[in-house]
Amino acid sequence: MKRRFSFTVAAAAAILAVSGCGTGGGAGDYPSETITYSIPFGPGGQSDVEARRQEPMLEEKLDTEVNITYKEGAGGAVGWTELVSEQPDGYFISGMNIPHIILQPMTQDDAGYETEQINPVAIFQGTPIGLAVPADSGIETLDDFIEEADSGGQVTIAGSGTYSGHHLAFMQLSSLEELDMEYVPSTGAAESIQNFLGGNTDAIFANSNDLVKYKDDMNILAIGSEETFEALPDVPTFQEEGVDFTASIDRGVAVPPDTEEEIIQTLEDTFLEIANDESVQEEMINEGFEPLAMGREDTQNYIEERTEEFEETMRELGEIE
Amino acid sequence: MEIFQEVLSSLSQPFTIIYMIFGVAAGMIVGALPGLTATMAIAVMLPFTFSMPADTALITLGGIYIGAIFGGCIAAILINTPGTPSSIATTFDGYPMTQQGKPDQALITAAVSSGIGGVIGGLALLFLTPLLAALALKFGPPEFFWIALLGLTMVATLSAGSLLKGLIGGTIGLLLSTVGLAPIGGSSRFTFGLSQLQAGFELIVMLIAFFCIPQVIKMIKNQTDAKEQVEPFQSQKGVIGYVFKQLFIRPFLILRSAVIGIIVGIIPGAGGNVASLLSYDATVRLSKDQSTFGKGDVRGVAASEGANNAEVGGSLVPLLALGIPGAPPAAVIIGALLMQGIQPGPNLFEENANLIYTFISAFILANVVMLILAIFGSKYIGRVINIPTYYLAPAIVFLTIIGSYAIRNNFMDVVTLIVFGLIGYILAERGFRPAPIVLGLILGPIAEEGLSQSILISEGTGSLLAMFFTRPITVLLMILCVLSLLSPYLGKLLKNQKQKEEKEEAG
Amino acid sequence: MTKDTGNAVFFIILALGGLWSARTFNTMSAVFPILILGLLLLFSIVYLMVSLFKAGQQEEETSKIFSREALMTSLGLLGYILLIWLIGFLLASLLFLGIMTWYLQGGYVSGRKRLVNAAGSSIAVTVVFFLLFRYIFLVQLPTGFFQ
Description:
The complex is a heterotrimer of chains A (321), B (507) and C (147).
Chain A: H1 2-19, E1 35-39, H2 46-62, E2 66-70, H3 77-85, E3 92-98, H4 100-107, E4 119-134, H5 142-150, E5 156-160, H6 165-177, E6 182-186, H7 189-197, E7 203-207, H8 208-213, E8 218-223, E9 248-255, H9 261-275, H10 278-287, E10 290-294, H11 296-316
Parallel strand pairs in A: 1-2, 1-3, 5-6, 5-7
Antiparallel strand pairs in A: 3-9, 4-7, 4-8, 4-9, 4-10
Helix pairs in contact in A: 2-9, 6-11
Chain B: H1 2-11, H2 14-32, H3 38-49, H4 54-79, H5 88-99, H6 103-138, H7 141-152, H8 155-158, H9 163-177, E1 180-181, E2 188-189, H10 203-221, H11 239-248, H12 251-266, H13 272-286, H14 298-322, H15 328-339, H16 348-351, H17 353-381, H18 389-408, H19 411-429, H20 434-461, H21 464-469, H22 472-506
Helix pairs in contact in B: 1-17, 2-4, 2-17, 3-4, 3-15, 4-5, 4-6, 4-14, 4-15, 4-17, 5-6, 5-14, 6-11, 6-12, 6-14, 6-17, 7-20, 7-22, 9-20, 10-18, 10-19, 10-20, 12-13, 12-14, 13-14, 18-19
Chain C: H1 3-21, H2 27-55, H3 68-87, H4 89-104, H5 112-136
Helix pairs in contact in C: 1-2, 3-4, 4-5
């Protein structure tokens, strides 16, 4: 390690000498190089679509090039493992998803990173998770559903991923209402929609954009947002229906640990500016998302709150010790 | 008719056609490089399409998709390494043809069957989408499990020599597919505490490891051995005519391959690799003379390539009708639609009819473009095998390394490639051929997800067996599995019967 | 002991080891691997029996798996990934392609031409594809341990 360090110092000195500029590489003139924006999922996914939407605006506002790269695997864990070991110089930023970054280290010993190592900059998009049944099922409200689930035959609910946002919503609903239901996870949102539309499961936990997309084929019983969800104004929240939890997948951006505050500030300002852009917000609402603009501090508090809440639920259900 | 005019006017724009040709050609090149897949080709070109109008963007991406799936066969035929997972089955007969000095014949066979298969897939997309989309929804977890088992019965066809070694190879492949986070249970399996292994082995990396690295080592080992030399390639006249004749006296061959391709394509989760393998297997089993398969049989190449290009059309069916991608490259096309401000979903056809019909028509046209480009190119591409081993072998290694890194930007994949490449070499020398192992790797995840979900669902409804026997498609797949297992014996039985009858007639 | 017997014993050990480590998985994670490992164990035992039964009848061919060329190539491949990790993709590839091409020309080309061919091919292939991937496909190739 020592060798590597001295080499880095030497290299930095060389770069300084060549560029003939005293502050080169420091936070003062950040950003002066190409920024790598890493997406811990595959191309064409929702995280990618968001990054692509931001890319031209980021390039304009930061006045530098932004390269989007993909680091797919293990539900994002591979990408976040890389993030926490990257140079904290602000030239490597990564998409970040909640609850993934909380649940993965909580349930896996070898996730490769810890939640505290993810250094959040901002959150710009929320995807509330809703519960839906087929349109012809005869179930109209959450109360109907709970009654049905309580009346003997075991209800199956499709969702995407194990120890994921959907799984957690399932666990919270089961534990709050003391229901005995079966969760049928798929490896992706598209697969679980397919499972549900094909009539293989009785209900589904789905992301808000999918609920908007397939709203003609399903009765949406409740949604996990805190307030009425703008794209689906007739759907009540779980809290309004008397089940006290919220469920959402939130997308944001993070930097490696120990990045200088000044650099984070620059990035935070830029991402918030884009998140507050009216046309961006309008596009998100049309696509079935909730535009958010949470700065660094809000995001940090939010992650802490969520971590405590999830820990409690998981412990209650015996999923962790 | 209004739509018809609209479609025609979009397609007659010179730029659109130029972009389409560019897309097909670029796709073919990317697909030919081992490690670079159709998914990646589309992802790489995605940013270039932002500034285009929606129809041009879609047409370009569709062209890349078609080109890349075809391009995979080039490496499969010339260096025994599938350029994309879809052309695994092409190696079985394509490479032996190259060894006999007939790479152009194999390439043209592949081009013609891909082109025809692709057009059939496109026509199905144009006329049968609503019908096929309904069929797509009939495939649930039990069907996935049984289709994977049906695929696994192919081990019998693939394990030349020892069935037992084929079975062991297949289970090794299945076992390797379980490394990493469990898709349903969520435990991390066989990672030995390495967080890098959580993501599991990337199929394409394993494909190159088991096919390409042993091939390169063999190539170098045999450089001095006169017996093992590949025949030099000289382009001959009349090859195109010969290929067309071969295919037209067997019209059912490509038609059957295309139908298998379309059906596998519409099933989300099973891609071109499964399509081409199932089609190859069906062709071998249904042929009267099976002795020449695996030794450079034109039918083998046609079965594999006809199916994998028809699969492209099939995989777009659930995408256009339901908003669900039928294969990984189709998932990237969803991203492209979103970025163009179009929401793929159940209403896509109604809301964007013009765009969708333009896209489908262009898709069919792009298959024809691909056919023409491939036929003209085959004469020149075939010369690759005339490059001396001392240039070719190191260059192939270099390309596989760069390709395996590029898939996930992960150095671990490069290490995996070399380690399993060497393991694959030793296994191949000991009689464990790569095909059954890779078959297990491809089908393992499909089988596991299907089985686990079936178990979970059946806990709600009663018993697992009751679930299997009450679903018509599952029952059909189970019957096909049994027939497939018994087919060698049935064939023998029929033969004996016939001989007996002949004897009786003679006597 | 024949080669087949050796293979079979290896696979039996692999299957048993896998089953042992599968004991910690939760139910839904364990179903499939245990099924597979059970099959592997079954097939390997049959394979072992067959190989023992056949052992007396067959003459073993001498092993040609590790001929000099195969061994050199294997070492070359392992050296290549070590070099990529140490000095980065570009330099490692230049070295690997150059050395391999030089080595493989033995017996075909000699003298100065052998060196020129090796250098030319390594520089041409590496540079063209490095530029293609770095600037068109936007793949950040590894830069090595020393950055």
